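Work Package 3 (structural annotation) set out to generate three-dimensional models for the target panel prioritized at the project kickoff. During this period the team completed the workflow that converts sequence records into discrete structure tokens, so that structures can be stored uniformly alongside our sequence database. As a representative example, we reproduce one entry of 179 residues exactly as it appears in the project archive.
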Amino acid sequence: MRLVELEIASQDWDGMRCGCGSSAGHLRRDLLRVAAGESPGAKGALEGHAWSVPVLFAPAPAVTSVALAALADRVPAQARDRFLDLVQCMVAGDGTDFASAAQGLDLPELCREVAAQGLWLLYAEVGSGRSVAAAGTAFEILTVVDANRDRLRRVRAAAGELLPWHCRTGLCDDDLRLT
């Protein structure tokens, strides 16, 4: 968990306003618990803090960065799946909370930019063979953050049955031209 800990330490959690109205400092502990496999779910643990349908809150880009660090780190399989779910939630956000929007921030776009920095982690998950569900989540994230549609098509074809049916058939694509 060294990479997760380093990424958590690199963020100014106390300087961020959490979705719950407090400082985001308490998210350090929550993210560490998820990384250790102690939390039942990252999305649930961070709902109302980093995100809430349909908006993202100020900590969302930092949370996305920690989730990517977890994918590069040695975390338990269930924690890996939870962090993938969390990244998917962050890149699929539709709006920005009022306070962040007033500062000119577009949190969904910032989260997509952060996630795009981890393209190869996501592609590695697709091809890893660890879990069809995890490969599907990673591929769904890639359809949002990777502009290289030719690469996505080639990976879809190469991954074959490593992907769930809805990803193999194109039902998960955000851009129907990918199919």
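The radius of gyration is 16 Å.
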